């Protein structure tokens, strides 16, 4: 049974706070192991990576077989299911189109004093994309991470993906090819993250590492941060559905379960002003679960972290939505656009009854790498800007320096930084 | 004596790598102490903050005296040096004008299939700004952190600044007033970071914490990351000056020392194609040091981390610049604009002989919070985007879902996520 809350109950504020405070991430004690692996890769390079790959993935490699060859990728494309491959092409095209609009523009202007100020965006010189092995090896995630990097203009995109016992997901390699990934290595875990960050004889280092992974990968990314950039550390996925009496309970239940099937730690929340819909959705969830292949996972997520919150009216639920700051927000209600406009904190919003979140996972166009665990209060989904950086530019002519210099000198002295003041004064003969 | 390197020497590549690998940060073992402080503030709230403030700052407070009153800020403004206050107004105005251009625009479009996709930027709901006490209490940093947040539209900007033994820097309070900071608290250290992240009875929590601080503050920011957003953890400051024979050695030396006077761990590097300039700058540094108030700090930085690199020509130095990825890059050379255009990695660029970096520290307009320690390879200086986040928006009408649905279903099934596929199929009666 999921949690049932009613915003009109006296105990609601406390119950809602406890919902917000729910810990869904299992913190595994992997830091020491990861520290040793990263150090070993820094010291041992390819040999260390090969050693860990043999131990953890049961795969015996040599330096020249770390990289997946173009021929292997060609062969993988041939093995792909034609329908899935066609869908992947649709997805790639739509993701690219959406993200092209995110390319930022440079700016520069000279003001009345003669000061030219501006900024310039440049692509990162190289990016590493981590792709998990096993069941969490999603070709859609390859596109969602690599396409924005490509749109940004990153000249070198490297992918690492473990292939336990040599098994590769051909669609993952196909996605890499479609997205324009430049190099693919069949390695994973903390050793792959360390190789990307510090480089080996075979693998040149990258400037930033993105992509999802297990606790070891997450710990390794945290550890190499600073040496390279990293993206967010994603937590379990989550959806909040705002629905009114006109919503179809079967559809709402399907969407709650699409989220819940990801992970026993995923979270699906329904917020509604209609008690009858709440009951109907709860019943529909049970019906769907009877035939869902991943029912065990989805049922555990729904039981342990699911919630149904009754509110007097949907407008009054906006502060609750902002406090939860859901990764995915679906609004299946009469005034979906009006409600959406009032939401401050959400990673992504899906409007209306014909926009199930799964469309956004694959082919909508927007990115599916989104802030989890309330971090939509302060961060955004992955995009082109994550693969670029901004350099500010300043240029004074002699007259501009004469005009601005005295203020800089005054502030330098006020801050006790006489050297700052002098570097200006010396040019003005002050 | 700073390091002297010549790019034509056989040993240059190794020497340059070792320059890149130089560790300038002192890693202090403060994590255990910070962990205890954060836990105590979560559990004890105001009382814990007051207790630590008494112990660490020698300041005895009550909950109602945590906040600096408007009257105290008025009084601080009256105590400020008039020239410094006027300069602060100039700085605020110029910083605001520059950052206004960074406000991103929302976007949305409906494509031929009937899919509406777009994104919306919203300001963070609240931001906390840490301002160090003592000698590193810089009013200019208050402006550089608070003005972009204000431009972004953050409705609640909170500042914390320790006041050891009750001493406040009036210009810091004046900067807070000028920048539109909404609340100021006279607390600091890890306890202030914890109060901002988790809230107390007196201090409501914020969504993100920015601003510089000592090792305790940095460790506390790392620890509360996730609960709130944080900005980068800044390392010691650095400048790289590209100069040719026409550069004025006295001016170049002054700029190297303006950087070096920040911190014994700061780094100043000169790259030139002119051996005579290299010698003249080195001599000028010694002359300047004789009269610089912070000569002891600047001399240590120049001795331990300073470097002069001779290159055959400045164009060939661009790969070195990109590898160093300096926080500040000054180009005092004939073709400054042309050289700048070829640089990929730099936090900020200062063009020509009349743009000393100190102008950018105070009144140029661009932000002075910039990526250090080679992180300009993958990150940008502080700006308006750091105080906003993007929500993606997707809306399908029934026809759009019919057009896109089959691709989503194919990919859901290919990834083993039947629940995803069903959430689409159920709407299409598939």
Assign a percent range to the helix content of chain A. 40-55%
Backbone CA Rg of chain A:
25 Å
Number of helical regions of chain A? 17
**Overall spatial form of chain A:** globular
N→C terminal distance of chain A: 77 Å
Let me know the CATH homologous superfamily of the largest domain in chain A: Nitrogenase molybdenum iron protein domain
Function (chains A, B): Catalyzes the sequential NAD-dependent oxidations of L-histidinol to L-histidinaldehyde and then to L-histidine.
Cofactor (chains A, B): Zn(2+)
Active site (chains A, B): 327-328
GO molecular function (chains A, B): histidinol dehydrogenase activity; NAD binding; zinc ion binding
Q: What would your notes on this structure say?
A:
Two copies of one chain form a homodimer. Chain A is α/β, with parallel strands linked by helices. Chain A folds into two domains: 3-23 and 235-365, Rossmann fold, CATH 3.40.50.1980; 31-106 and 122-230, Nitrogenase molybdenum iron protein domain (Rossmann fold), CATH 3.40.50. In chain A, 44% of the residues lie in helices and 16% in strands. Chain A has 17 helices and 14 strands. In chain A, the strands form three sheets. A six-stranded parallel sheet of chain A has the order 1-11-10-9-12-13, with helices on both faces. In chain A, strands 6-5-4-7-8 form a five-stranded parallel sheet, sandwiched between helices. Chain A starts with a strand and ends in a 5-residue tail after the last helix. At the A-B interface, helix 5, strand 3, helix 10, strand 13 and helix 15 of A face helix 5, strand 3, helix 10, strand 13 and helix 15 of B. Strand 13 of chain A pairs parallel with strand 14 of chain B, so a sheet runs across the interface.
């Amino acid at each position: 049974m999921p949690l049932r809350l009613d915003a009109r109950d006296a105990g609601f504020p406390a119950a809602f706070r406890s919902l917000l405070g729910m810990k869904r991430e299992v913190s595994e004690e992997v830091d020491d192991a990861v520290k040793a692996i990263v150090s070993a890769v820094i010291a041992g390079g390819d040999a260390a990576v090969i050693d860990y790959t043999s131990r953890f993935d049961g795969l015996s490699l040599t330096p020249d077989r770390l990289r997946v060859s173009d021929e292997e990728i060609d062969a993988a494309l041939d093995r792909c299911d034609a329908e899935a491959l066609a869908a992947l092409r649709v997805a790639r095209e739509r993701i690219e189109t959406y993200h092209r609009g995110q390319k930022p523009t440079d700016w520069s202007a000279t003001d009345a004093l003669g000061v030219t100020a501006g900024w310039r965006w440049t692509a990162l010189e190289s990016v590493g994309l981590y792709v998990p092995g096993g069941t969490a090896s999603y070709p859609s995630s390859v596109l969602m991470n690599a396409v924005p990097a490509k749109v940004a203009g990153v000249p070198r995109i490297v992918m690492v993906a473990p292939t336990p016992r040599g098994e590769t997901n051909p669609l993952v390699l196909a996605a890499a090819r479609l997205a324009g990934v430049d190099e693919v290595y069949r390695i994973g875990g903390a050793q792959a993250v360390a190789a990307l960050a510090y480089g080996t004889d075979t693998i040149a280092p990258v400037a930033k590492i993105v992509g999802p992974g297990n606790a070891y990968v997450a710990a390794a990314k945290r550890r190499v941060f600073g040496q390279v950039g990293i993206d967010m550390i994603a937590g379990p996925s989550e959806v909040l559905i705002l629905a009114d009496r006109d919503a179809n309970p079967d559809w709402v239940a399907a969407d709650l379960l699409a989220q819940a099937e990801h992970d026993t730690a995923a979270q699906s929340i329904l917020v509604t002003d209609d008690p009858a819909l709440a009951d109907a959705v709860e019943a529909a969830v049970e019906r769907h679960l009877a035939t869902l292949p991943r029912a065990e996972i989805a049922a555990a997520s729904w039981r342990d972290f699911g919630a149904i919150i009754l509110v007097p009216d949907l407008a009054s639920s906006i502060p609750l939505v902002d406090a939860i700051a859901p990764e995915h927000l679906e609004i299946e209600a009469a005034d979906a656009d009006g409600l959406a406009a009032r939401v401050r904190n959400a990673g992504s919003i899906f409007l209306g009854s014909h926009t199930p979140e799964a469309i956004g996972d694959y082919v909508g166009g927007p990115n599916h790498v989104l802030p989890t665990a309330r971090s939509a209060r302060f961060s955004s989904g992955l995009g082109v800007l994550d693969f670029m950086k901004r350099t500010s530019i300043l240029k004074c002519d002699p007259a501009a320096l004469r005009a601005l210099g005295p203020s800089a000198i005054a502030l330098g002295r006020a801050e006790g930084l006489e050297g700052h003041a002098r570097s200006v004064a010396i040019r003005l003969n002050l």
